[in-house]
């Protein structure tokens, strides 16, 4: 007997928000059944439900118990899967809902941001013998001893990829309200082009830049277990973008996409005495207080004094300035200055790994248009440049054009 | 070591509807912890939540899958227990929520009206070793193979009594928005008196008459496992009414309470040929179509013809008249007449078991006030009389007075 072909399809909160939209989702599942023997449909809570539930927790308690927040929030997906299964059964499809704890999707006990440890894949296969479609709650799991957990925001993507990994050699389709992954944000660059394929590593860099298409942990999971992920729209028939392993066609391109992030604030400590351990004195307290530092630059020392500049998320600015003021007093720094009118743009591509000169081309292109480069950070497949926020759109378009992303590469 | 004293407390939908009310519930649980070592708090869904969820199912499907309705509806209590546990933990109480499937409360697979088969009492006791208060979802359970079920309307009372039975020799407090069980409805009889004690059998008869205080299945459960049940108010400190086994003080009273039910419609088949099997010909089709027949009277035959009269719930009238018209045609009955302006009143009391003449006293009292008696039915501890609906309030007051229920019996 040929192996059973299983397709995992994940539908986000906007796709299941209303009856009309759920009917579109039903069409996608029916289409999936035409292409595979069985479908596992992973659903998020209806758009707004999770926020409403957590707002309720905020009314009930100033510091709501995290474990009980998960019991509360997990009702959102439970409502989605029950309603959607009713629709499928009305259409004569052999379907049932499955709560994560019924499979089970076992996680650690970090309530609110749990990580998946294992999935009851044998039980899942037994269910697939009896039903054609299993409708599974995304975003949630349970501990070894059966307590309800949630995976944190965007966790439904991770649920879907993990289920696909557990079932083995299965494609995972992530349905959303966009066609796929674009070379850059089409809202600010009309030449943006939908990619047919993108490498896991590129997708990871884009996700970390705030591209909302896929949750970063789901991409890590997909890469680790080599699950092919297809990002596509619930509302049309476009084949979308396949997120997969690198291949030679991807490496032929120097740059695959341009990302940007406005959520940046820059902080500089001027004239810090340049003694051993000064960087630890600055960044240790920030790390302890949970502030995530992004880019860091330390200038060469002049007269035993140096400048230390770093960027953070804007929501952490107030907190960071308080901590940094103490650090400045202790280390004898002259002053602390900050700037919130900054943003970063990145060029990402597995192709740049084997080519030098990509950074130079980016700098030259921006400088030629009069855009001042404030900070630079590079990794193996990414160049990130901090600029003034007012230049973001312009910089994205320049880089998109410079690396020829509007060409359609066959 | 002395046995651990455990108290089960159940709080209904109106008691948990808002944050303010849940704070009252917290006071009751704290009070419970003062009287026992451990508390098991059983919660309903917040008032309106279950109706809203089932309305959603009605929008999604004309004939919603029953199993999925239970998955949907069970989120209501899940929200209640999560929110209430947050409140308890804020107050420093060692508490956690428990979903019925986490205990488990095992039921049969009659989705929407499941019956409890067993309760994981060892697991429950293990949880009680680690927590002072367990906050349990009422109204729900799960099948042997882990599917979510609900017990039907009022099922939270049954959940509470079943948990108390499983834990053994435990009192079960049912908190509601009334002080306890009254000798009759205080809204129509100002002399109505709260009872300190009432026998299970009396409570069963009252519940079957539509007294809303306790769900009938919970009383059956309490009687079967001899669980003392105390009905009391969330909003004051009255000790309420203890529902318990009969004792001699109860038997000293001829009648304990007067109940009434306006939801009655009377149907009569005139001049039915009185041949063997005619009753079956009338009531068989009604039973097959799910119509519950309440009182039945068949007159003595005259000239081989008889009248058959019975009562049903008003919502079943249209359906019943359709069925009865067919039956009349088949059996050769002369005509079918009906009357919706009827109601029944009952006198209930374990004391009447050993005394004759109770029925006669009731009939005499009603007749003296000009109330016509339409039908009569008697059981070991209940006399039920069908009258015209306009006399309901008067009849209740007359019977309440006739049997001396406004006297305070020490």
Quick one: which chains have the greatest interface?
A: A-B, 37 and 37 residues
Shape summary of chain A: globular
- CATH class membership of the largest domain in chain A: Alpha Beta
Q: How many E-type strands of chain A?
A: 18
Radius of gyration of chain A: 24 Å
Count of spatially separate domains of chain A: 2
The number of helical runs of chain A is 13
Determine the strand fraction of chain A and express it as a percent band. 25-35%
Which structural class fits the helix and strand makeup of chain A?
Answer: alpha/beta
* Second CATH tier, the architecture of the largest domain in chain A: 3-Layer(aba) Sandwich
Query: How far do the termini of chain A sit from each other?
Result: 37 Å
- Sheet with the most strands, sense and barrel status of chain A: 8 strands, mixed
Oligomer: homodimer
| Order of neighbouring strands in the sheet with most strands of chain A | 3-6-2-1-9-11-12-10
Low-confidence stretches of chain A: none
Q: What percentage of residues of chain A falls in helices of 4 or more residues?
A: 25-40%
Mean of residue pLDDT values of chain A: 92
């Amino acid at each position: 007997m040929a192996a059973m072909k299983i397709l995992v399809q994940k539908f986000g909160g906007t796709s299941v928000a209303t009856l009309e939209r759920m009917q579109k989702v039903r069409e996608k599942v029916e289409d999936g059944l035409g292409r595979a023997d069985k479908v596992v449909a992973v659903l998020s809570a209806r758009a707004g439900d999770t926020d409403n539930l957590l707002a309720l927790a905020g009314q009930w308690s100033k510091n709501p118990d995290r474990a009980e927040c998960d019991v509360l929030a997990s009702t959102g997906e439970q409502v989605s899967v029950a309603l959607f299964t009713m629709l499928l059964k009305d259409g004569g499809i052999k379907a049932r809902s499955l709560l994560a704890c019924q499979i089970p999707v076992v996680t650690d006990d970090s309530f609110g941001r749990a990580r998946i440890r294992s999935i009851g894949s044998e039980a899942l296969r037994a269910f697939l013998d009896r039903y054609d479609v299993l409708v599974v709650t995304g975003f949630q799991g349970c501990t070894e001893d059966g307590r309800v957990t949630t995976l944190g925001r965007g966790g439904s993507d991770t649920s879907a990829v993990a289920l696909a990994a557990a079932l083995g050699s299965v494609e995972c389709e992530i349905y959303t309200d966009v066609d796929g992954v674009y070379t850059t944000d089409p809202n600010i660059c009309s030449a943006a082009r939908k990619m047919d394929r993108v490498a896991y590593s590129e997708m990871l860099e884009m996700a970390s830049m705030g591209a909302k298409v896929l949750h970063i942990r789901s991409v890590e999971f997909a890469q680790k277990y080599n699950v092919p992920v297809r990002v596509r729209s619930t509302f049309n028939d476009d084949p979308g973008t396949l997120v997969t392993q690198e291949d030679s066609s991807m490496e032929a391109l120097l740059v695959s996409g341009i990302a940007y992030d406005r959520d940046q604030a820059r902080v500089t400590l001027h004239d810090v005495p340049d003694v051993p351990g000064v960087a630890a004195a600055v960044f240790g307290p920030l790390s302890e207080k949970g502030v995530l530092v992004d880019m860091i630059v330390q200038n060469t020392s002049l007269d035993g004094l140096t400048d230390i500049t770093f960027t953070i998320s804007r929501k952490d600015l107030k907190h960071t300035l308080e901590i940094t003021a103490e650090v400045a007093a202790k280390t004898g720094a002259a002053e602390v200055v900050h700037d919130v009118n900054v943003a970063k743009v990145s060029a990402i591509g597995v192709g740049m790994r084997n080519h030098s000169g990509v950074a130079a081309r980016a700098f030259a292109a921006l400088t030629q248009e009069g855009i001042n480069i404030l900070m630079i950070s590079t990794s193996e497949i990414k160049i990130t440049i901090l600029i003034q926020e007012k230049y973001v759109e312009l910089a994205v378009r320049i880089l998109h054009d410079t690396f020829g992303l509007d060409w359609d590469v066959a």
